[in-house]
Structure formats: structure tokens, C-alpha cells
Amino acid sequence: MFCMFVSFNIVLYRKLAQHVCSDTWDEYSADEIPGIPKQHCSNNCGVFVLMYALYIVMEGHFDFDESDMQVLRHWWCIVLLTNYPLKSDAERKSLRKRMRTQRAEAIDPVPADDYLTTMPPEILRQILLKVITEDGDVAFLRLSLTCRIFKEIVSNAKFREQAHYIWLDSFLRTTKKSSECHIP
User: Fold this and answer.
1) How far apart are CA 91 and CA 97, in angstroms?
2) Cβ-count burial 108-127 (b if 16+ within 10 Å, e if not)
């Protein structure tokens, strides 16, 4: 399984490289690059990959090893934060608000000639209650993302309360039956 995963990634990386630049690429393994530092039983693989890329691109001499990882992590943090500063709370809130608005606009309204708009609301409500009692809490999210009509129904506090009572009732009935069948 691991070999298949590695092989798939190599093929993917080769395709990506060809997409970036269609010229010929030279491939090397770590054993073919003189003086390349090796990782020994640690969780520093990401830092090693970043440093390998940096040194190969800059044609530098590999002068780091595993004992330098703490300093290199700190250096990479400074480089990344200097070039890609964190957004302020106000900017992040504004971005989240924009994303919510875009998602809300992405939910298409149901066409007027759709059978959902002509179905009696109580029947649709009962159908959705049945779906939620069978599928559980995850159905609330799925149904609310399906269309505006479903979202309006499942977001209603009375609907949620009724769904909870139906679930509670079925749970109590199941518990009662299992306790009646219990053999001491």
C-alpha cells in the first residue's frame, strides 16, 4: 500500500513538473546528491523538504543537519510571517462574512414550477422529519444545504424541537424494549 501511494505521488509530481515547465527534468534521489543531510527518526521532514528545495534552487552547499531544526523552524516562521502577514481580526471577520454571503447566494432558489413549491408544506415537513429521524443530526446540515425551502424548514426552532422529541421518543421506546428483554 505504501509503495503504491509513493508511486502515485511520484507520477503526480512528474505531471505537475511538466505542467509547470515542459522541458526535461532531472530526477535525483537523496543518495545521488553529495553531502545532503539525512533526517534521523524525527518529525522534521517538512523542514528538511523546505531546506532541500531552498538549497537546490539556490545551488547552495548543504550546511544544516537535524540539530539545526529548532533554529530553522524559527527562521521559516519569520520568513513566512514577514512575506505573508496574518490578517487582523476585523479582516478575518470580514472575509468570513463575505464567504457566508457567497455560500448563501450559491444556493439556488427553487424554480416556481418545481413540485416542492406546490407540495403542501405539512407533507414536506413530515417527509423531512422522517429523514432526520432516520439519518440523525447530520441530516439537518445536509438538508439545509440542499435548497432554500429545506433550509427554511429545518432551521425553524419548532421543527428542530419536534425532531428532537421524535428522536427522544424512539430512543426511550428502544431502551424500554431492551430492558424488557434483558435476561438476568
Assistant:
1) 10
2) eeeeeeeeeeeeeeeebbee
99 domain residue, yes or no: no
The range of the structural domain enclosing residue 165 comes to 108-180
| CATH code, domain carrying 139 | 1.20.1280
Q: Can you give the pLDDT at residue 5?
A: 41
Give the cell for residue 163. Answer: 425532531
Contacts of 132 (CB under 8 A, 6+ apart): 139, 140, 143, 154, 163, 167
Neighbours of 105 (CB within 10 A): 8
Q: Is residue 2 part of a domain?
A: no
Return the closest-CA partner of residue 91 out of 103, 99, 101, 80: 99
Which letter does DSSP use for residue 23 in this model? S
Q: Are residues 131 and 76 in the same domain?
A: no
Q: Mind listing the pLDDT tens digit for each residue in 149-184?
A: 888 888 888 988 888 888 777 767 765 555 555 554
29 assigned to some structural domain: yes
Instruction: Calculate the dihedral angle through the C-alpha atoms of 64, 69, 71, 76, rounding to the nearest 10 degrees.
Output: 90
C-alpha cell at 172: 426511550
pTM exceeding the 0.85 threshold for the entire prediction: no
Mean predicted confidence (pLDDT) in 48-73: 89
Q: Has residue 89 been placed in a domain?
A: no
Q: How many domains does the chain have?
A: 2
Of the three residues 83, 99, 131, the one that is the final residue of a domain is: 83
